[in-house]
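Here is one chain, start to finish.
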Amino acid sequence: MKIAIQGEPGSFSYEAAQRMLPGCNIVPCARSIEVFDRAERGSVAAAVIPIENSLAGSVSEHFDLLLARKIFIEREFRLRIVHNLIAPAGVKRGDLRRAYSHPVALEQCRDFFRRNPKIEPTPFYDTAGSVKHVIHNELRDSAGIASAQAAKVYGGRILAAGIEDDKRNLTRFFLIRKTRRIMPGANKTSIAFSVKNTPGALFKALAVFALRDISLSKIESRPLRGRPWEYVFYADFVRGYDEAARNALRHLSEVADLVKVLGIYPAA
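Its structure:
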């Protein structure tokens, strides 16, 4: 089974895909849009994407792509994230002037950079890709920030382990497919919806869940593309595809401009 990810072998998405689907054939992609293109075209069976980190927050680009594409969330998975400072053999910590990694990973290591002001955080397209970059180019003043697996894959040396700000650092991943499939035991739903900019519109939208004792576990807003100063809300609620959930979604469609079910899946 081919599974697309954004990132290189040794990335956290790579590890998440291995753990969600043992034995799968992972297809690394440089950009997130390529991951969604492959999944939507059907050139891969599915894709694994990070959607939210407990320290850095949501991956906004992936929320936008979930709304725009014909893709359905089938599963979620939570991975403990441990960031390591990885450099070529022979490079010492005092030699470093910059550390490359994905912007979300850099955001999770702010305390490390505060304590080490001579090391400049430098955005890169991927965590494992940053290690590959510094090792293959033999950069003597640079390191990558990535998983311990990345150090093994590319032959790097870990100069500092566990440099994330909080040890309760978790990333939530989605398994997404082109086809809609609801797994047995599905008890969580992700949706996107928008409302008119009128008094009480959001209250009415949220009331459809409160009236049925359905708990929202997450809600946030994002700008609605092509409609300046209008917003789409992304929400998760703790219910599968039962009668109460179906009635809530029907009711929501009556008071909202847009409603899209992004996925119905077992909670991690």
